[in-house]
Amino acid sequence: MAPGSSNSSDLAPPPSLGDIDRPSLFLDFDGTLVDLAETPDGITVPDYLEAAIMRLAERLDGRLAIVTGRYVADLRKHLPQCSVVISGSHGAEIESPEGSPVSGKEPPRVDEALLAEARAFAQRHERLFLEEKELGLGFHYRACPDKGEDVKAFAQDLARRHDLFFRDGKMIAELSTTDDNKGDGVRAIMEQTPFKGGTPIFVGDDVTDEDGFAAVDAMGGYAIVVGDREETKARFRLFGVRAVHQWLELE
């Protein structure tokens, strides 16, 4: 186990959100706010979730952001009425509650040659789902876990040949045109009003959330892992999506 890491089963629940001074809250989406599904569009968003998130954001004076591997436009499709800061594509995109870019960066888009090769590979593997993002690709193998090693090997080879960045997630092999991560998104947002000066809290379930955990930990904040992880930089644990909703008083 890496220095500074823990097994999630050894971690205690976090303190009450109300006991934390001026919380600046960063929430992962899949596996944290909604249960995971075989495909990104297969998720179920509870009827109460959007309104509850907006009430929580108001309670925190706007210091609530969703930090996701999805691209921003895709997340807004699932939460169309949720006017909060969103960091998408693992920190490469950041949008204000009004939908305007917070970052002036314009990361490169995925080119057609890469898409064609990825689509051909996905078509050859039954139940493998290819997620096409603006700034990358995701090979979801939750429905065919026996193909995981082959999928990761192909994605890594594709990354090398197309000068992309490989990211290994929970039943997903991702490629990105940038090396941004969720920690970068957290740090950028923490420089903005009203987050600046608050106590950062990151809640997430996946290995890709570890960068967010490291970022808030370095700022003296709270890193909270959701579910079971053999190795994590988080200092606290919630057992699952339902526990997250209860801790945030969303239900």
UniProtKB/TrEMBL annotation:
Top-level class of the enzyme under EC nomenclature: hydrolase
Keywords: Hydrolase, Magnesium, Metal-binding
EC number of this enzyme: 3.1.3.12
GO function term, MF aspect, one: trehalose-phosphatase activity
Gene3D superfamilies for the chain: HAD superfamily/HAD-like, Trehalose-6-phosphate phosphatase related protein, domain 2
Pathway(s) served: Glycan biosynthesis; trehalose biosynthesis
Known cofactor(s): Mg(2+)
GO biological process: one example: trehalose biosynthetic process
Pfam families in alphabetical order: Trehalose_PPase (PF02358)
Record has Magnesium as a keyword: yes
InterPro entries cross-referenced by the UniProt entry: HAD-like_sf, HAD-SF_hydro_IIB, HAD_sf, OTSB-like, Trehalose_PPase
Catalytic activity: alpha,alpha-trehalose 6-phosphate + H2O = alpha,alpha-trehalose + phosphate
Family per record: Belongs to the trehalose phosphatase family.
Role summary: Removes the phosphate from trehalose 6-phosphate to produce free trehalose.
Protein name stated in the entry: Trehalose 6-phosphate phosphatase
Source organism per UniProt: Alteriqipengyuania lutimaris
